[in-house]
Amino acid sequence: MSAFPTTPPTAPTPSTLDEALRLLEAERARSQSDRLEAVARFASMAVHDYNNLLSVINGYCEMLAPELEPQPEIAAQVAEIHKAGKKAVELSRLLMGLSGKQSFEPQTVDLNSLVQEQRSYLTGLVAISRASLHVEAASPEPCRVQTDTEQFKQALHHLVANARDAVSGQAKGEVVLKIELRTGECSNTQAVALSIVDNGTGIDESVHARLFEPFFTTKRTGKGVGLGLFFVDSVVKRSGGTITARNAAPQGAIFEIVLPLVTAGSANPANGEAA
Question: Where are the transmembrane segments (predicted)?
Answer without folding.
Answer: none
